[in-house]
Amino acid sequence: MDQYTLNLLVVGATFALYIGIAIWARAGSTAEFYAAGRGVHPVLNGMATGADWMSAASFISMAGLIAFGGYDSSAYLMGWTGGYVLLAMLLAPYLRKFGKFTVPEFIGDRFYSKAARLVAVICLIIASITYVIGQMTGVGVAFSRFLEVSSSTGLYIGAAIVFAYAVLGGMKGITYTQVAQYVVLIFAYTIPAIFISLQLTGNPIPPLGLFADAKSTGEPLLVTLEGLVTDLGFKSYLTQEDTTLNIFLFTVALMIGTAGLPHVIVRFFTVPRVADARSSAGWALVFIALLYLVAPAVGAMARVNLITTFYPNGTGADALALADIETKSELDWVRNWQKTGLLTVEDKNGDGLIQYVGDKDANELTVNNDIIVLANPEIANLPGWVIALVAAGGLAAALSTAAGLLMAISSAVSHDLIKGQLNPNISEKGELLAARISMGIAIAVATYLGLNPPGFAAQTVALAFGIAAASIFPALMMGIFSKRVNDKGAIAGMLAGLIVTTVYIFLHKGWFFVPDTNSFTDADPLLLSIKSTSFGAVGALINFVVAYVVSSVTEEPPVEVQELVESIRVPKGAGVATGH
């Protein structure tokens, strides 16, 4: 059976499973559409949260960033993992006790203001749309290779699949679909890693193989990789290149951005009890760790395989011949990825060899970061079924998170904007219809923006984390732990954090992500060494300061609101969802 047919069979089988689950778990009420009826077991919710979390950025793009970024890219692992600790300890149980369906609903009630709820909706939509652009980019990358179509066509196919099961099932359908997607993606990520770790080091456990001796040199794998990249003029893999200030702020932005992402927080509204919310976060960390412990090994080993493929006789000998790429079957993967436009080969000096070097002017091989994980099994010449499994896993990762984000967007529009602001008397049937229409519109917008993303999948996602960190996280923290912050302070803080951060991002990435409209680049940032992906930490600080200053010079919150804040922090009882 040829690879294309095998890909179709495996990917088709998983899609049939997802859509079947969505039909089985179809939402029949707003409680099921928004919060899965609050009946999800903590372990299953932890698994669904893991799938919701391990997006195209984690599955497809993160290892690629580690492969080419080395030490500096480890901040992704530290920030994203640390964020779940913050979420478990500081937010999840308290928000679950409050008993609402959405993050803007909590902010609106806690700060006794429809305006605060509206600002929270705006913050949520901006962060979620930015995030979902990265997911749709990942969908396009995966489909383009394994269905042998252009990346734009792949994007359209993925959007149609998301529309089919997310619009139909709501949170109930998405939750149980994500459980299945987690199982698919974790097997798809770890099985190739085990094979490749055995090939390169003889150790079947990838995290241990990363520190084991490479068979080819007898030296530790990381030392071998460091020698390969420095011999070819690339930057060091093991030393810090970025400034400590930017790495610190980037890690903080990812951590508090994680804790402020609405599509993650809403997962903890689906469990029966307050204690289950904290338990779910713990299980989510376990399931996420299974992938995150493997990711550094995947990135490093993929870089080793890539270099040794193009320098089969060592970096001191001639590079791979262009004629070999055009004729040898083991190099089919190069030709296949060339069709997608995500890998390019150009014999600039006409010597018949493909030089893969750090000098941009002399380099003749360009590899998009986002293809590393998906191409990894092909580069290592693994069996066809492993390649097909990785295709299914990459699509599961991107589609699961896209569905969660679209759920957050649709609930914000239908529940917080339409029911909470514009038409409080809307019927439950009308609210469900509005939720599904808004989700369809969000899919269309995300697909359009995904055609020209502002960076690699993980970089685009990092921008979304910065926006969430600067706008939503401070409001939630002050709403739970400060009785003094009032409606005016919360609104002013959210707007200040959001505006300053988005303007800084647009100055570096282009206004509304339109290409060639930027004034600065991340290589030459506006403020000190702070890149656009790191500025969310600064925006969060601005949010906190503005909120406290404005609150201190205006009236205190009503007594009943202060009592509400006290009750949220008492670990007894679970609130019942209201306002639906």
UniProtKB/TrEMBL annotation:
The membrane topology of this protein is: Multi-pass membrane protein
* Entry keyword annotation includes Transmembrane: yes
- Annotated membrane-spanning segments are 6-25, 77-95, 115-133, 153-170, 182-200, 247-269, 281-302, 385-413, 433-451, 457-477, 489-507, 527-550
Q: Where in the cell is it found?
A: Membrane
Name of the protein: Cation acetate symporter
State the family named in the UniProt similarity comment for this chain: Belongs to the sodium:solute symporter (SSF) (TC 2.A.21) family.
Q: Which UniProt keywords apply?
A: Cell membrane, Ion transport, Membrane, Sodium, Sodium transport, Symport, Transmembrane, Transmembrane helix, Transport
**Pfam families this protein is in?**
SSF
Q: Which InterPro entries does this chain map to?
A: Na/Glc_symporter_sf, Na/solute_symporter, Na/solute_symporter_CS, Na/solute_symporter_VC_2705, Sodium:Solute_Symporter
This protein's source sits in the domain of life called Bacteria
